[in-house]
Amino acid sequence: MTDNLGSIIRSQVKNKALFEQAKSYAYDYMDTIHDRPVFPSPGVLEKLSVFDEPLPGNMGDSEKILTLLHEYGSPATVAQTGNRYFGFVNGGVTPAAIAAKWLSDVWDQNAGLFVISPIAACLEAICEKWLVDLFELPEKTKAGFVSGTSAATLCGLAAARNFLLKQAGWDVHKKGVFNAPKIKIVLGEEAHSTVFKTLSLLGFGLDDLIRVRTDRQGRMIASELPVLDETTMVIAQAGNVHTGGFDPFHEICDKAHKARAWVHIDGAFGLWAKGSENKKHLTAGIEKADSWSVDAHKTLNAPYDCGVVLCRDEAALVSALQNTGAYIQYGKNRDGMLYTAEMSRRARSVELWATLKFFGRKGIENLIISL
Fold first, then answer.
1. For the segment 154-165, what is each residue's pLDDT rounded down to a tens digit?
2. Which of 6, 85, 335, 366 is in the most buried spot, having the most CB atoms within 10 Å?
3. Same domain as 190, residue 263
4. Total structural domains in the chain?
């Protein structure tokens, strides 16, 4: 059976018919997406029942599998890459990026370590440099490439929690979080729901939070910040999901750093305003924060999924996320595993690099101006 399976796979790879079929379906989808309804009709959704079956006992036919996906799956997608989709803050995708993603799908790289994928590590380093430059962050800021802002916020706040507890003389790696010194968590009344989810995953409850009153744009009122100290984590927001409002970062960060507190900025879609000369004033002061989370698959229109955590303190980020093991071969080159919670993960840097290289500074500027 194993020999037969290997023979089938080698044959499919060699004759390319399956991949030509996939290409034709992809082209068909591209050609018809502007004529599709943005959301599938009830009749189309009902036909999804075709996928509801017991796990097959025997091997399937690859061509028929692909046909099933296209005939019943393609019509049941949301046409978010079309020009009539305005739901949530989902982005579209550029041809350069989707083509790069197709190629990287064939590469099927694991971006955990340089030794596993030199190209993924190389492009991560380039994207990191470009993003730090674009956002005008401290020169030594490190980036981790994750699934989205939810995961990026988790990484950033994990670094913050461990750093603050270390300042208080508590070793999280040795003692855990139970019975640890109290951390004061300060955030605006209109912080995004993912922030609360992340805090819960890190062991914090609603009673641990100090919510600061916000103005009509959902921006924290800096004068109403509580007394901050070296055990305080402040979570600010670049781009309120309802209004687009930006917190007053200069005032928040100045107060926080004077008290040796940590500031994280949730900038899922708003951080990209830094790339526009006429919008960057909204982000004034973000460079004073300690960590940031942002989505490239929102405002920048990179393919899904593509989020980034950025942290000015490399040691704090690595300490919170690093894995160790005899088989893990860290080297002198960039090892992306150090900056994310994931070990095995896809090479998101490929399509992010293609997106950034396609737009360039001028394209990013034009993209943001048009929003």
1. 999 999 999 999
2. 335
3. yes
4. 2
Nearest alpha carbon to residue 140 among 152, 129, 153? 129
Q: What is the CATH number of the domain that holds 275?
A: 3.40.640.10
Q: Which residue has the tokens 């009509």?
A: 216
Q: Are residues 111 and 71 in the same domain?
A: no
Tokens of 38: 């943005």
Q: Convert the pLDDT of each residue in 233-274 to its tens digit.
A: 999 999 999 999 999 999 999 999 999 999 999 999 999 999
92 lies in some domain: no
| Residue 96 covered by a domain | no
DSSP 8-state assignment for residue 247: -
79 and 118 housed in the same domain: no
State residue 371's pLDDT score: 65
Q: Which token pair is 7?
A: 């023979």
Q: How far apart are CA 25 and CA 36, in angstroms?
A: 15
Q: Identify the CA nearest to 111 among candidates 98, 128, 99.
A: 128
Helix (H, G, I), strand (E, B) or coil at 15: helix
Q: What digits encode the pLDDT tens for the residues 80-124?
A: 876 677 777 776 788 899 999 999 999 999 999 999 999 999 999
- Contact (CB, 8 A) for 271 and 292: yes
Q: Show the beta-strand stretches assigned E in 85-213.
A: 142-146, 184-188, 209-212
- DSSP 3-state helix, strand, coil percentages of the chain (rounded to 5)? 50, 10, 40
Find the Cα–Cα–Cα–Cα dihedral 129, 133, 138, 142, rounded to 10°: -30
Indicate the pairing of strand 291-295 with strand 307-311: antiparallel
Please provide the DSSP assignment of 293-336 as one string.
EEESSSTT-PPSS-EEEEES-HHHHHHHH----TT----SS--G
Q: Which residues contact 330 (CB under 8 A, 6 or more apart)?
A: 113, 338
For residues 54 and 194, what is the distance between their CA atoms, to the nearest angstrom? 35
Tens of pLDDT, residue by residue over 283-335, are 999 999 999 999 999 989 899 999 999 999 999 999 999 888 888 888 899 99
Q: Supply 84's token pair.
A: 């009539």
The reply to whether 121 and 206 lie within a common domain is yes
Containing structural domain, residue 130: 102-369
**Whether the Cβ atoms of residue 115 and residue 286 lie closer than 8 Å to each other:** no
